[in-house]
Amino acid sequence: MLAQTELERALPAGLPPILLATAATPSVAALRLPFEGLGPEGYLVRTVTLNGRPTLLIAGNGDKGALYGAFALIRHLATTPFADTLSLSSAPRVKLRVLNHWDNLDGSIERGYAGQSLWDWWTLPDFRDPRYTDYARANASIGINGTVLNNVNAKADSLTAPYIAKAAALADVFRPWGIKVYLSVRFSAPIELGGLKTADPRDPAVAAWWKAKADEIYRAIPDFGGFLVKANSEGQPGPRDYGASHADGANMLAAAVKPHDGIVMWRAFVYAETDPEDRAKQAYTEFKPLDGKFADNVLVQVKNGAIDFQPREPFHPLFGAMPRTPLMIEFQITKEYLDFATHLAYLGPLFTEVLDAKTGQKRGETVADVVDGQAEGHKLSGMAGVANIGRDRDWSGSTFNQANWYAFGRLAWDPDLSAEAIARAWAAETFGNDRQVVDTVTAMMMGSREAVVDYTGALGLAHLMATGHHYGPGPWVADLARPEWNPVYYHRADAAGIGFDRTTSGSNAVGQYAGPVARAFAKPETTPESMLLWFHHLPWDRRMADGRTLWEDLVGHYDRGVAYVGRMRQQWDSLKGKVDAEIWQKTATYLAIQEREARWWRDASLAYWMSVNHRPLPAGVRPPEHDLAWYKAQHFPYAPGQAH
Ligand code: GCW
Among 60, 90, 120, where does a domain finish? Predict the structure, then answer.
């Protein structure tokens, strides 16, 4: 049993004998332990007496539970010494805990900053790189049970026989670890591969093509998970091309996988260049009327916020607004908008901030209640994370980026965990249980995402990054073809003020929120300052809670963000000699890069804002190092992760 090997590798000596079992094992059944609530994946780890001997029992209703229990025990003992009695028990709150790989068939990764794709499509299916097994082990250890292998900007090729065989080889490696394989599909594949004239979901020939394709996939991968679809978004084909709805498209695919117990994850990330509506509103406008129209094996996958994985966004208004549809939440683990792998930004606080947000729909209901299906008693529930994994030796582009993969898995299993508890556990499992190391690392991590918010644009500003690659500042960009690709579209700064008016006097995106939440966002006085300019256009002189003007406050945030990175460097320096030398050195170098780039963000942004508002910097504030023209002249044609 795999769990046995994991225990042998990781457990300290001096424990009582361990029994890995299932609820049905006769000696275990006799103990009458509470297995009922555990489902197929939950576990129970207990010190029990078996045949008169103290025994450490690890069990679930099936093998998957025992495997997760083994990892839970390893995790527990990494942070807590063994005491004579032990009792751990947990079952996942979310059913589908899935990574989304935006990996292309040529080995590149869209928005990937950890090297080439782990999947070597060229040598698959014959060569099964041992790293595929390590990948599966790492995922299983944090409860992830599914992986979408290819980019949502999908090529039809991944549905051809050779690529199905390659996916099947990966599925074979992952299966023993409880991980199912899914594929992103290109909606127009019946035209490209099947020679049909249309991909209209209402055309019987199209539905028949997908059904035959699903049957073919299931012959190769009997436990294939299903399809992920990006349709009618950023140029991808979809049902809207034929006047059919997203529900028509999703349901047609759902029918194809239904006989095999497959599911469809249909993304709500849609916005159209032809639509002048505030981009933040478009997904809700398109999907809300479809509530109740999706087949029962469809989940609608909604990004955490209404724009696009910004360092901070208010939660997406669709959460709670489609009670008859299971909504998956999609987080981005890879840091497309947080300056890539080099910047240390622990995303636990970003994830929990959204999961804990009250939807305003039902009393006390949170986004997590919607996502885990509890709110409406949905059978299906899911959480997706856009992976930050590549072929780099450290898997994620840096040691600290592994924490974001880890936090995603832990929160998908239990959305109620605190970001800090997860950070502490990760620090101890990664660097060992030295108190000073764990405290320092946790302290660095906990404020790190807020620091990125501060030095890239606080107070609810968003999408100020440079064009295309999204690396570094570009708040001045105003010349792109589609209005909503331009940073100026988002910040709307002029001599008088700054911010996007999303109240009734503006786009009224606030109207997509419910109850007390909508009421709070409707007025600047009741909007949290961290989201102020997301919802309101306000004068630069507006008084903030601390008595400063908005302009002074914004400047203060930039300086605070830069200072935080400086402090992280000192904190990390204090750990020299206490963590692995190679990891220490790389992290120290990355922190130096981060500090330089945080300054660059600050200086470039201030230079630009001053060119718009014609205001001096508050007394004592250091002026930008260069003039605005210098910042505008910076170009990075080979920045990693670009779409192509
Ligand atoms: O975040 C944006 C990215 C695109 C991505 C898109 C999406 C896969 O810039 O690269 O495409 O979102 O989520 O579909």
Answer: 90
- In this structure, the residue with its CA closest to atom 1 of ligand 1 is 308
Instruction: Give the global pTM.
Output: 0.98
- For residue 27, give the nearest of 10, 51, 61 by alpha carbon: 51
Whether 359 and 276 map to the same domain: the answer is yes
122-131 contacts, C-beta under 8 A, 24 or more apart: 124/165, 124/166, 124/169, 124/170, 125/165, 125/166, 125/168, 125/169, 126/169, 128/169, 128/172, 128/173, 131/391
Provide the pLDDT confidence category of residue 462 given band limits of 50, 70 and 90.
very high
* 413 in the same domain as 300: yes
Give yes or no: residues 345 and 469 share one domain: no
CA of 432 to the centre of ligand 1 (A): 36
Across 273-289, average pLDDT: 92
Number of domains in the chain: 3
pLDDT above 90: percentage of residues in the chain = 96
Ligand 1 atom closest to Cα of residue 230: 14
The H or E element containing residue 2 is: helix 2-10
For residue 644, being part of any structural domain is answered with: no
Please indicate whether residue 155, judged by its CB atom, sits closer than 6 Å to ligand 1: no
- State the amino acid at position 190 in one-letter form: P
Instruction: With a cut of 90, say whether residue 262 has pLDDT above it.
Output: yes
State whether 209 and 303 are in the same domain. Answer: yes
Q: Is 234 a catalytic residue?
A: yes
Residue 33 has pLDDT above 80, yes or no: yes
The one catalytic residue among 192, 234, 277, 394? 234
Q: Is the pLDDT of residue 375 over 90?
A: no
Whether residue 259 lies inside any domain: the answer is yes
Q: Domain end: 90, 117, 142, which one?
A: 90
Cβ–ligand 1 distance for 603 under 6 Å, the answer no
Range of the domain at 45: 2-90
**Considering all CA atoms of the chain, what is the largest pairwise distance in Å, rounded to the nearest integer?**
82
In whole angstroms, what is the distance from residue 374 CA to residue 376 CA?
5
- Are 400 and 474 members of one domain? no
pLDDT tens-place string over residues 490-514: 999 999 999 999 999 999 999 999 9
The mean pLDDT value for 288-310 works out to 98
**Known active-site residue 625:** no
> Among residues 110, 200, 278, 308, which one is catalytic?
308
| Residues 333 and 471 occupy one common structural domain | no
Q: Given a cut of 80, is residue 644 above it in pLDDT?
A: no
Same domain, 274 and 403: yes
Co-location of 223 and 315 in the same domain: yes
pLDDT value at position 83? 85
Question: Are residues 241 and 247 in contact, defined by beta-carbon separation less than 8 angstroms?
Answer: no
